[in-house]
Design a protein that fits this description.
alpha/beta, Nucleotidyltransferase, domain 5, DHBP synthase, five-stranded mixed sheet, 22 helices, globular
């Protein structure tokens, strides 16, 4: 009988489930994709059901369950934080009681939700779950391991060394001095939402100048050559209040926090650039120390800060390391995978099988849907569509894209992690300078400054972008557009400031070239990416360009689509021109405005 191990992360944010079969990753998904609540933190019952259904097994056939953190150690941190902080004692006591009532008795909650499961339950530690999720699926026999996030139980930054099937923790920085909290504090100061708006801060930074680097180092955070930081805690409120920062933090800059929706000014862009550069300097020092401790030039990373693709690209080009692999689901959602892998290795089989690419299979680990599933929904709502064979579909899509159409693409298994990698994507022509603003304002309904990522044929990307070792299959590295593809701007264009920079076509692919000539690249190969590879080939044949815009198939505030129903709803409520679900192509102009919200509610209840 196969050995099935289920991994679970839950109760903070981004609840998820992952399933192993004899140590091989077979299924993984985030709960938000099923509940349609972004960063869902409830017990991932839907994600678990998906994993079990994928293998056609029941919960009773699971050999072991792993949970991604140790709540007893976490309780120690929460108790000491809330009850030893005199300023926020009563607020802390209230929070502590709530935490005990809802999150301390996790064993009972898990076993209750798993119904007929009667097997063993194992608890990993938060940063160890991240470390295992980063190292075990990586293509490296040995590597330095770096985990950076807000906080786990006590750890905020951890350095470990992995070799074959062993991971050894070498150094850590403990709460409350957290790189993740530092970055999130500036996220809040700039009017973005903590735990979700950090990527907006990163996207805003290139519009600014690093005018406040010295002020940040003097008044907010200090750090040494090993990257060990010390926050000026009197400027922060996360130990005793409900916000990350307080008025003392704001007074440093002489301006209050930006409120979401208020106009972003050059000042805010400069602050964003400054904290991005300070963060990069800190992490550079941490990596320097990690290489010194491990004597390894291979690096793997996980934790929320590992999603800072600008920093990742600079690390790879710094000369500190030779190769880098970042867990595609680096946040807490990836803890489910780490917990499963740690449980399997510890309890059942310590042998680690290394894949020369990696063992995460493109991170296409979520649900897929059959033709029968798709036609039931399309016909049920009387949609007009055309069914193609795969070759003809790629050619037809290439022609539509080259004519300026925006296409929602729904193919195969859904991605595990925050990045759309061609399975649940919105795609368009990167040569069109207007496409960046059109996608932001009329499709995604989000801030106009936000950049878009290019997907490029692996065989062609060195012609269009500065080289990255091993490519960038998970869209977690930023690099520069090749100089040969840039457009020389005159003095007037180069002198533009702030969002005025968006008006300049900077390259032959302006819609995916950020204002600092950078791009967050995804490289596409035939064996890993299937249909999207064929589509890029067809688009190159039509246009001579082996690149497309790729952004996640969702609108602002919603998770990436999971089911055909989700895709249809998004399609009909945006200005997308075309939807492709597997081999079915739908033109917006041929539809009759189906799928208003009330119809969706009725369909979900009855269908």
């Amino acid at each position: 009988m196969p050995i099935y191990v289920l991994g679970i992360s839950a109760f903070y944010h981004d609840s998820s489930a992952a399933l192993l079969k004899d140590g091989v990753i077979v299924a993984a998904a985030q709960e938000e994709r099923f509940t349609r609540k972004k960063f869902e933190n409830s017990f991932p019952i839907n994600a678990i059901d998906y994993c079990l259904n994928f293998e056609n097994i029941s919960i009773s056939q699971i050999s072991a369950v792993g949970f991604y953190e140790d709540h007893h150690i976490k309780f120690d941190r929460i108790y000491n934080t809330f009850l030893t902080n005199h300023k926020g004692f009563f607020n802390g006591l209230k929070k502590l009681k709530k935490w005990i009532n809802t999150k301390f008795f996790i064993e009972k909650v898990i076993m209750k939700n798993l119904n007929s499961y009667s097997g063993p339950l194992y608890f990993s530690q938060h940063h160890m779950s991240h470390a295992v999720s980063a190292f075990f699926p990586s293509p490296f026999e040995e590597a330095a391991i770096l985990i950076i996030d807000g906080v786990g139980e006590w750890s905020c930054t951890s350095i470990a060394y992995g070799k074959n099937n062993n991971i050894k923790l070498l150094a850590e920085q403990r709460f409350p001095h957290s790189i993740g909290f530092l970055y999130s504090s500036f996220t809040q100061y700039l009017g973005f939402k903590v735990d979700s708006g950090e990527y907006k801060l990163m996207g805003l930074a290139p519009y600014g100048e690093p005018k406040y680097v010295d002020i940040i180092k003097k008044h907010i955070v200090s750090f040494d050559s090993k990257g060990q930081i010390k926050l000026s805690l009197e400027k922060f409120d996360f130990l005793s209040g409900n916000r990350m920062i307080n008025q003392k933090f704001e007074n440093i800059f002489g301006r209050p926090s930006l409120i979401e929706g208020e106009e972003i000014e050059q000042f805010h862009m400069d602050v964003a650039k400054s904290i991005q550069m300070v963060t990069e300097e800190i992490i550079h020092n941490v990596v320097t120390y990690a290489v010194e401790l491990t004597s390894s030039k291979n690096l793997v990373m996980a934790g929320g800060v590992a999603l800072n693709c600008v920093n990742n690209g600079k690390l790879l080009k710094s000369g500190l390391i030779d190769r880098l692999w970042v867990q595609p689901c680096s946040g807490d959602g990836g803890g489910a995978l780490g917990a499963a892998l740690a449980t399997y290795a510890t309890v059942f089989d310590s042998e680690r099988k290394i894949n020369k690419n990696d063992s995460q299979y493109g991170s296409y680990l979520g649900p897929s849907f059959s033709s029968k599933d798709i036609e039931e929904v399309l016909d049920g709502y009387k949609f007009s569509y055309t069914k193609y064979n795969a070759d003809d579909l790629a050619i037809e899509m290439a022609k539509k894209l080259s004519s300026g159409n925006v296409i929602g693409l729904f193919q195969g298994r859904m991605e595990y992690g925050p990045r759309a990698l061609g399975a649940r994507s919105i795609i368009a022509d990167p040569r069109n300078q207007e496409m960046q603003s059109r996608l932001n304002l009329k499709i995604k309904f989000r801030e106009s400054f936000r950049p878009f990522a290019p997907i490029v044929l692996e065989e062609s990307y060195k012609d269009w972008f500065e080289d990255l070792v091993d490519g960038s299959p998970y869209m977690l590295l930023t690099t520069k557009v090749a100089k040969s593809k840039l457009i020389n701007l005159d003095a007037k264009e180069n002198s533009k400031l702030g969002f005025d920079k968006l008006q300049s076509a900077r390259s032959l692919i302006p819609a995916v070239t950020h204002v600092d000539d950078s791009a967050r690249v995804q490289t596409i190969s035939k064996d890993r990416n299937g249909f999207i590879f064929d589509l890029l080939k067809a688009f190159e044949k039509v246009t001579g360009c082996p690149i497309l815009i790729n952004t996640s198939f969702n609108i602002r505030g919603e998770p990436i689509v999971c089911s055909p129903l989700d895709a249809l709803k998004c399609f009909m409520n945006t200005n997308m021109d075309i939807l492709v679900i597997e081999n079915y192509l739908l033109l917006k102009s041929k539809q009759n405005g189906q799928l208003v919200d009330e119809n969706f509610k009725d369909f979900l209840k009855n269908g």
